[in-house]
Design a protein that fits this description.
- It comes from Bdellovibrio bacteriovorus.
- The structure is a single chain.
- With 196 residues, the chain is of the alpha/beta class.
- The protein has one domain: 3-Layer(aba) Sandwich (Rossmann fold).
- The protein is built from eight helices and six strands, in the order βαβααβαβαββααα.
- Strands 1, 2, 3, 4, 5 and 6 form a six-stranded parallel sheet that branches.
- It is globular, with a radius of gyration of 16 Å.
- The model has no long low-confidence stretch (mean pLDDT 91).
């Protein structure tokens, strides 16, 4: 299963609205994808937060990443980068299994530049850890004008770009999996080779 990471903990965010819209696109393409809402994840963050020792509440989210066929990361721009909660979540992901050969695509949300900066930062992080980055990124400028109160994308160009990305990312993940080059294939091979 693919997972959409709704990359902010802001209540009532456009990020979650866009994530739900993307989920509906995949459903129309015949694929169920699940949203990981970082606002929900935040509820599980309390006490001493130590990297490498995630709390029980965050562990199910991390397990979803480890089993995913691909990740769709939707990130707004906060102060020229990604939201802190998104970076915090990324920093808890198991190395190298969460990243290495994991297909990932990005949607940036912003005002003037459409979330270009956080997407470029995310590409650097995932690329450094050897993820397979789908090259067709989507940048939604003036996102507050692109989506209505019901979460429907009303901007025709934005809608077209999101649909095109989803169609391409489906083919991308299928091609990698079919050739045995995706993260799940590599993890399965490692388990077969592990001493018993």
């Amino acid at each position: 299963m693919k997972y959409i990471i709704s990359g902010t903990d802001r209540p009532g965010s456009n990020t979650l609205k866009i994530s739900k819209f993307i989920q509906s696109i995949y459903k129309d393409l015949g694929e169920d994808v699940e949203i990981m809402d970082l606002q929900e994840l935040k509820k599980h963050l309390h006490g001493d937060l130590l990297y490498g020792t995630p709390s029980e509440g965050i562990t199910p989210y991390l397990q979803k990443v480890l089993s995913s066929d691909g990740l769709i990361v939707v990130s707004p721009e906060y102060n020229g980068s990604m939201p802190g909660i998104l970076k915090y979540f990324i920093d808890h992901m198991k190395f190298p299994d969460s990243f290495e050969y994991r297909p990932v695509c990005f949607v940036g949300l912003g005002i003037m530049w459409g979330g270009l900066r956080p997407v470029e930062h995310l590409q650097g992080v995932f690329g450094y850890r050897n993820a397979f980055i789908f090259p067709e990124r989507v940048f939604l400028m003036n996102v507050h004008k692109s989506v209505d109160a019901d979460g429907q994308v009303i901007d025709a160009t934005a809608k077209s770009l999101l649909i095109k990305q989803a169609q391409g990312f489906q083919k991308f993940t299928q091609a990698l999996s079919g050739a045995g080059l995706d993260a799940n294939s590599f993890i399965a091979k490692k388990l077969q080779l592990a001493p018993k």
